[in-house]
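Handout, page 2. Input:
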Amino acid sequence: MAKNMNAWPSVAGSAKQPEGSGVAELHTGPMDYLSVRTVHIATACTSIALFTARGAMQLGGIDWRRWRWLRIAPHLNDTLLLAAAITLAVMSGQYPLAQGWLTAKVVALFVYVGLGSVALRRGLPAPARGVAFIAALASVGYIVGVALTRSATLGLV
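Output:
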């Protein structure tokens, strides 16, 4: 029976590609697809929580930068998140620009990062930071929705 190379690996299934597919076999050994996916989801949740906490403190007039771990932890976490995302793309053989839903996630990620940097920037008026914070949360909500539905239109079309 031929495998469908465009099929997304199931949670219970294997991400192993047929021999000669040209896809790197990064899934062998201790880091299987499910483990990397779990790391990706956990770091995404952590990233959203850290951004939400820092944004809320910023809007509340609390200088979150005085806590060193709040300045460092998001960068470490987001590096691991990106590494897991790239590993998942390689393991599954699905890449942005080839898959519309992944392209939508990457574009929305750039929007989220831009809005997030405005929301956390010092020296801007609080209303501008507040609007950027809400818009960044909306964009990350879209990213999560796209990830869950694997559809750039969130399955609505």
